[in-house]
Amino acid sequence: FAGAAAGTATGLFNPLDTLRVRWQLIPVLSGSSATSAPPPAARTSLLRFARAIVASEGFYSGLWRPGALATMLSMGTSCGIRMGSYPYLRDWVAGSSKSKTPVLMFGTGLFAGGVGYWFSCPFFQAKTRLQAATLLHTAGKGPGGGSSAAAAAAAAGS
C-alpha cells in the first residue's frame, strides 16, 4: 500500500518536477556557463515559463506526461521496498532479545531505505531524462528536431 500511495502522490506532483527539470535546462540550451550572466529566460518568472509551455504544448503533453510513469515506478518501488522490508529487517536484526533501540531502528531503516532507492534509481534516472528530453526536443536539440516555437522561444528568452 505504501508503494502505491507514494507512486500516486509523486504522479500528481509530476508537473512541478517536470517544470523544475526544464527550468534547470535553460542555461544548457542557451550555452551559458556558471560564470556568465543568466540567459534571458532565466531572468523571467517561472510562472511565465510554465505558461509558455502550456500554451505551446498543453498541460498534459508539456508538463504532466513527461516522466510520469517513471516517477510513479521509482517512488512506488522505493517506498514499497523500504516500508515492506523494514519491519522484517528490524525484527531479524533485533533477534530473540526483541530490544528495539533507537540505533537499531535507525540503522535498519537506513539500510531498508538504501536498498529501496538502489532498486528505484534506474526509474528515477529515466524520469529525469524523459522530462529533459521534452525541452531538448522542443528546442531542436534532441532527437527529431524542434516543433514548438513558443516553448523554444521561452527557453531561449525571446
Largest sheet: none
The tally of beta strands, per DSSP, is: 0
Number of separate helices:
9
Q: What fraction strand?
A: under 5%
What is the mean pLDDT?
78
Overall helicity: over 70%
Low-pLDDT residue intervals, each spanning 5 or more residues: 143-158
The SSE string, one letter per element, is HHHHHHHHH
| Secondary-structure content class | mainly alpha
Overall body shape: elongated
Instruction: Please report the distance between the alpha carbons of the first and last residues.
Output: 46 Å
Radius of gyration: 20 Å
What does this structure look like?
The chain is mainly alpha-helical and 158 residues long. It contains 9 helices and no strands. The protein has helices spanning 2-12, 14-24, 26-30, 40-43, 46-57, 59-64, 68-94, 102-138, 149-156. α2 packs across α8, α5 (46-57) packs antiparallel against α9 and α7 packs antiparallel against α8. The radius of gyration is 20 Å and the shape is elongated. The termini are far apart. The model is unreliable at 143-158 (pLDDT under 50).
Furnish the topology, listing elements before pairings.
Blueprint: H1 2-12, H2 14-24, H3 26-30, H4 40-43, H5 46-57, H6 59-64, H7 68-94, H8 102-138, H9 149-156
Short description:
With 158 residues, this protein is an all-alpha fold.
Index terms:
158 residues, mainly alpha, 0% strand
